[in-house]
Every structure is written in structure tokens, then in C-alpha cells.
Amino acid sequence: MYNRLFIAISAALAASSLTIQAEEQDNQNTTSVERIEVTGSRIKGVDLEGTQPITILSAEDIDRSGASSIYELLQDIPQLKGGSGTFSTSESGSTSTSTPAGQAAASLRGMGPSATLTLINGRRVAPSSFAAGTQNFVDVNAIPLAAIERVEILATGASAIYGADAVAGVINYILKDNYDGAELEVSYGNSLESSYEGKIQVNLIWGTEIGDGNLMLFADFYDRNQFDATDRDYLTTPNLINGYSYLPKLENTPNLYYYSSRDGNELPAPGCMSELVTTEYGEQICAYYGNQDDVLRTPFESMSGGAMFNQQIGDLTWKTEFFISKTKSTAYSTPAAINQLDDGEGPWVKEDALFIFDDQNGNNPLLESLYIDPFDTLLGQEQWGFQFDARFNTPRTIEVESQNMRLVSSLEGQLGQWDWISGLMFSESTSDQLATEGVYNRYKFHAALAGELCNDGNIADISNGQLSCGNASILDFYNPFLVGNSANDATLALTQARPTREGSSQIYSWDFTISGELFTWQDITVQSSFGVEARNEELSDTPSRDAVADATNDYLVDVFGYGSSIANAQRTQLGAFAELYIPLTDTIEMQLAGRYDHFDDFGSTFNPKIGISYRPTDALMLRAGWSTSFRAPSLTQAGVKLRTTTSTFDCGANQAVANLYCEGDGTQVTVNSLELGNSQLNAEESESLSLGVAWSPTRDTTVTIDYWQFEYTDVIDTNMTAVLNRAISDASLRHCGLVPEGQMGVSYDEDVCSVTDTQGLSITQSGANLDEILTAYINEFDPRSQSLQLYRDHVIQLENTGSQDIAGLDIKFDHRFRLENADLIVKLDATHYLEYERNKPGSDEAEELVGTFRYPENIGRVSLTYNADDFYISLGANYTDSYADDIEGLRGREIEELAELGKLDSESQRDVDSWTVVDVSAGYQLSGGLRVRLSIDNLFDKKPPTVYGSSRGFDSINHNALGTNYTLGLTYQF
């Protein structure tokens, strides 16, 4: 715990101040650190910047960044890098495990977007109605950049002031206020490649005085084109030949499933348009690689508008802010795999499908190499055929339209010497999703395979073995091996589905804050702030019936490779806080704060904070802060009914699990699962400590170094590795076939269930020895994978599964050279991670993440800016440190290929190269009201480092494949 350490440091600072002489030698070259009112305090008019590290993006910073969206504005901030918490539309996809289409989130310290509180003018914003997994987050793409005056980033715990979610810190977007005049801005950006990745933005701001008030109106339009992996030559082909999938697209002809092959090998069908690949079993197959359908940046369009109105009414100030934004985006995931009706591998098709490969003499060697077995069709007919492997042709494609609205109305005034403010807020986020392509109904598709589909798209009726379609007619069976036949393709098209999803999220709140001088004692004036808040949050996420799994349909979603969850929850929260500012001496200032919150669904919590700053000289400041924070379980986590998703278990984290399910290897395995919410979840909790020094040896130089650390506990997630580990000794978690309704655990294949250990116990019986069952299973069935065969739809529940200990240093340097007609400014902003430790999934053992995949040790930005009255030019560089490639997450065949290529070191590991990208921006005031700006990112067109542990071939979280790209903007002030 940090309490004793913090108290000792605070005492040392206080004691040392007593030794400072009352009079200090004047130094003409020094000045005190700038004092401004910033995020992290509710006390009005008091500078508390010294007690906490904060980053401020000013209006000038925003204008010169060339950013067209909030995400672009934040992407160079070191505190928002590292790990996989911050995400953009590069991670968007059509499945429930993907980032919602067109949306982006900011995450401080890599702790996840739900651990970063997003505010606008100090008040909350409704989270996206579609969660990222089960994490609710605020979609920063919905915040209109045109209305932002500045951004304040407090990267330390702040629940003592703001309540829930401020675990890693706060990002506060401050809107423009009291604007007088008009401004029109137009910008266009694109890469220098022949492919078109253009973006265009137009925004307008107008403001004027009205009586004793001010009205500001703004509007913003932004449109960005799609960016595909195939738009870059080095991403068109896969990094590793052995990164293949056994499931080719239908248009590339399916493979013959190994179980139907007489020699036990997967076989390619004639007509594969790509070079055959040799598998680890020595087979020749027609392969699929996901990069051919990978969309690195989805298309995106947004329109927003709003108003800010301030009016003086006697001694009161009435403020109203309103904005509404609408966004449209399309997201893609790889084409869905085609499975059996029960979602098992290798769908069946009639033997007639291969008659198209008969030679002129009627011979068919391919058909003769297969076992032709009986199988039951959807309507219960017995047909003879074989199994195949394939996926659909078209990527799963969804279109999402979202609307975000926020209305705040507040009154401010004075009560004696006290300032008070009270406000009402309503914030809402709604989204509508439609699957437009690549999603197919499993029942209709299997009916088509068996010739049981009608030409009106309905499944035929059967009576006494006779099929009927009413007024329609029976279609010929769909042949997955018949490529380019219009009638065959039309039959497939009839099986397409268009599931929908609707979501809404609302926040209703009222707050009251009063601040002023509490008392004066021995020349010490104690400033204070007190406040209360009442908040109601509601969330609903409702997919169409054909996208939901439940026990009545054996947990089978009606469509292939696509599923959603039903979530419906609401909560009421009441909070009260107090904050004190105490200037203990002329050189020591202290901030004390505490907040009590009560939630009607999980209970109460109290979070304190203490901050202290000590200025032994005008040029030097020492600061320290300690606080606790919490994050209430999100409404999705508490209210999700049954979420169709995938879960990954890590055999590298638990050897017992590896021996049973991964042939002893440390690989990661992804399985289909069903995720349950948990109303008994505890809040995530964090204890944070920060120690810093700020030094200004001259009025033009500032250096700050801040040490920070978080102890983050009760982190909410699912843990498939832990469930498998518990199932070794807990028979209640082991099920043959589907997990019964109302129960949880692991689903095993029927073959595994048919064998026993040496004591005669089957896998579902208490006391069964799973190692012995594995041996019996291998001896009986000689499976291709020497591990326990899992079935499908394992049911697991969200739980408080882990902890994280994170520590690091933030280093900032700012120096200004004052030239005759301009300034030359040098800036450095860097983060060094000292520790990022978390418990391994399914294990009490801790793992250190610093330097591992996606967790660079050092991140930084340096810039040099020449700033004249009517002209500026800035040269900058962003640095991302090297880190380990995710070799452990690869399959054995991929690791073998890397070894053959000489890409691995003596320990069978490799590092991803560090990446330094240079950018330049410039602006010129052409006339009194017209200025032009140009920004160029990745000036030298540096490719992202190769990453073999990512299917994309590079790390799209920490790196960017766009290459050199520019933004040209014109601004006219009326």
C-alpha cells in the first residue's frame, strides 16, 4: 500500500520547508511555474495545477495539429499509448467482439477506455450504446472538434472529485465560450499513394453578443474514405505462408474435409485459383488468408451542430450548451466460416456436387478418394454425401448509424462570498446497425445444400417424404463447388440474412456545487468546495431475433458467424464530495478531497485524495498526490443476458490447461462461447500515487518529471483459462454436449464423453482424472489434435478476475529561444513504463508486460517550432520503442516457418523494431482574415515494423500503415 510512503514523503516536504530562509536571493532569470485553473478541482478561481500532473492541448495546439477528429488530435499523446486500450476505427468489425463500427475511444495508461472518464465542460457524456466487448466507453468520434477550445488530460486517479470511472484519469473537453465573430474552415487530406484514402472537413462557427449574453452556433461535416490492406503492396500478401486457414472462399472452391478422405488428409478440389499450400500434415490444400479482406480504416461520415448560449439575468448567469452529432460507418469482418447445422466443422453436401468433375469417360478420381456416408438433412431426409471446408465469399458487412445528443442548462451565482453553480444534463447515444452483406441464415443455407429451399427463399415443407413449396417451386440443390453459375449463385443469395441491432444509452443528472473561502486561521485562508450529484443511467442493446442465441434453439444463432447480445440495465447514483485547498505556508499548498457515492445496484464507496506541492524557490516545485478510485461495473457487464462471442484461453499461462487442451504447447486458442452478465460484480478499485518535480530555471524553460503508479484490483473480465483450470477439479463445470440452461462451464465433444479414466469415471463425474481421460481418448480415437476435444458454446460469466500494477515516468521539457522577430520552441513529451504487471489468466502467477507485445517501454514525441507573427513551421517526431513480437500466440507451424527463415533468436523469440515517424506542419496568415495550414504525417513514408504475431502483419494499435499523408486547410475569419 502507498499510504505510509506518501505520508513520509509529505512529512519530509513539510519539514524541509521550515529550513528555507524567509528571504531568498532574487534571480532575474527565474519565474514561478505558470498557475492556471485546470481539471481536477471544483474550487473556483484557485490554482491547483501544482498538486497534479496535467496535459493541456490549447486552441493553438488543436489548430496546428491538422487533426480532423478527436481521435486524430489525441493519437500523439504518450499517456494515451501503450497496450490496447485506446482504439480507433482501425479495430472496427462486424462481430460482437469487435470495436463498434465508426467509433473510437481514449484510454489513459493502457488501462482500458472504461477506466478513463470523459467529460465535456466538467460533466459526463453518455457512453456508446454498443460496448467494445463488455466495456462501455464514450465514443470520442461523436464529440465535435470544431466546438473544442482546449483539452485537459489528468492522468491520475480522480474519483474523489468526479466519482466512478476516473481510475486512470480524466479527459475534459472544454467548449468554446463567449465567441464573437465567424470562422469558416475547410480542409482536405489524403495519402500520396495511388489508392484514394481522402478525407474532407468543413466547419463553421458563428457567435455574437445578444443583450447581456452571448450566442455561439457551430456546425461540422467530416467524410473519410476507406483504407484497405490491399492498398499497400507489402500488406497484400501474408507475412507467413503457414498463417493460412483451411477454409477457402467458395469462389476459390472448397477443400474436402479430412474426415471424409480415405487417406485421412484434407484434399483440394479442382479449380483453386491460388497456389496450393502444404500443411503441417503434408496435405495440399486451397488456403485462405485474411489480409485479402482486411479493412485497415473503415469509411466514416459525421455531421454535427450545436449552440452555446450564455445570458446574464440580474446576478445570475444562465448557461445552456447543446450539440447533436450523427455518424455513419461501415465495418467488415472476414467472410464467415460454413459449419454444420450444429456448428460443428465440415458441413455435409450430396455426392452429386462432385459430378461436375467427371471426366469424359464418366470417371471421377476425386469422388473415388472419399468416403460417401449417409447424413440427415434439415428436414430429416437421409442423403449420401461427404464433408467439405469453406467460407462464404463476401466479408461480413454491417452499416451503423449513430446519433449523440447532449443538453446542459445551468445557473451560476453568488451567495455572499460563495460561488455556486447548479445544472441539469441530459445526454443520449443511440445506434442502429444493419448487416448488409456476408451474413447467411444457417437453416436456409443447409436447406439449399440439400435441395430443400424454395425459390421464394422459404424452406420447403415435407410430408410423407414429399417436399412442397406452396405457390413456389423447389430449387435445385446449391453446389458449393460450382463456381460462376448464375442460377447456383442466385440460390446462395436467397440464404442471405440481414439481422439488425438497436441500442440506446442515456444519462440524466443534476448537480450542485458551491465553493469559496471556508475560514481563515493564522493568515491561512482555506478555500473549499462542496457538491452533490444525482444521476440516472439507462442502457439497452437489442438485436433482432435471428442474431441471438438461447437455450430454446440449442444456443445456435440463426446466422453463421454473427451474434449479438441482449443487454438491458439501469441504475441510479447519488454522490457528495468535499474539497479543501490549504496553503499551509507560503511555499506549501495542499489539496484534500473525498467523495461518497451510492449506487442502487451494487452499493456504496468512498474515495479520498490528497495532493501537496512545495515550492522551495520560485523556480522549483515538488509535488505529490495519493488517491483511491473506482469503476462501477458497466451497465453492459451487469445487464448482459447472453452474449454470443469468442473466448481465448492462454495455454502459456497454465501448464495444466496446456497439457489437456494444447498438446502441452503455450499457444492461445479461441473458442465460441456465451458470456453472462453478473449482478454480483464488485467495483474495480485503484490506488494511485504520483510524485513529481517541475523546474523553471529561466522564464523560457520548464522541465517536469513525474513518477506515477496504480494498484488496480478486481478487474472485470471473463477468464476462459481460469474456467478450464477450475474444471479440472470441479465436475459441475464439465458438460457433455451443450451446457444446460441455467448452468455454466465447459462443453465437451461426445467422443471425449464416451471414454473413462482408469477408475471407470467419465468426464462429467466428480473425481474423474482428466489426464487419464485424455490418454483414453487418444487411444480410442487417434484424433488429429492430441488434446481433449471441446464442443461449442461454453457458458462463462463475467467476474472480478484480476489485478494490475502499473508504474512509470512522464518527462516533459519545454524551452523557448526568443529571436528578434520570432520564437524557436523545443518540446519533449515522453512516457517511460517501469512496470505493467498483471496476473496471468487462470493463474495466480504475475506476468510483466513492459516490453511484451503491444507494450513498448518508451513512448515519446519531440518537436521544434519556429513561431513568427504571421507564420509558423513545426517539425516533430513520434517514437515508439521496440517490444517483443507475439511469438507465443502463433501456431507451431508458423513458429517453424519463422525459424526456417532465421527470424527468431536463440530463445525462439524476436523483437518488433522501434518506430520513429517524422511529421511537419506549417501555417501562414495570408491576409487579415485568411490563413492556410499544411500538415504532413510520416514525412519519409516509413513502413510500420513487421509483426508476425498479428494477422495483419503489423501492429495497428501502436503503428500505422497509411504512409505519408497530408492535410491542407484554409480558415477564414469574418
If you had to describe this structure to a student in words, what would you say it looks like?
There is one protein chain. Helix content is 10%, strand content 43%. A hairpin with a 2-residue loop joins β20 and β21. The model is unreliable at 1-37 (pLDDT under 50). By secondary structure, it is mainly β. It is globular. The protein has a 22-stranded antiparallel beta barrel. It has a five-stranded mixed beta sheet with strand order 1-4-5-2-3. The longest helix has 15 residues, at 3-17.
Write the layout of secondary structure elements.
Layout (H helix, E strand, L loop, with lengths): L2 H15 L36 E4 L1 H7 L4 H5 L41 E5 L2 E2 L23 E7 L4 H4 L6 E7 L5 E11 L7 E12 L2 E12 L2 E2 L4 H4 L18 E2 L10 E2 L8 E2 L5 E2 L9 E3 L2 E14 L2 E18 L14 E3 L14 H4 L4 E4 L5 E8 L6 E20 L2 E20 L4 H8 L11 E3 L2 E3 L17 H8 L6 E22 L2 E20 L21 E19 L4 E12 L3 E15 L2 E12 L3 H5 E11 L4 H7 L6 E9 L7 E15 L2 E17 L2 H8 L6 E3 L9 E3 L1 H4 L16 H12 L12 E4 L1 E20 L3 E18 L6 E3 L9 E11 L2 E10 L2 E2 L7 H9 L10 E2 L2 E11 L4 E8 L27 E9 L1
Parallel strand pairs: 2-5, 31-36, 34-35
Antiparallel strand pairs: 1-4, 2-3, 4-5, 6-7, 6-46, 7-8, 8-15, 9-14, 10-11, 10-19, 12-13, 15-16, 16-20, 17-19, 18-19, 20-21, 21-24, 22-23, 24-25, 25-26, 26-27, 26-30, 27-28, 28-29, 29-32, 30-31, 32-33, 33-37, 37-38, 38-39, 38-40, 40-41, 41-44, 42-43, 44-45, 45-46
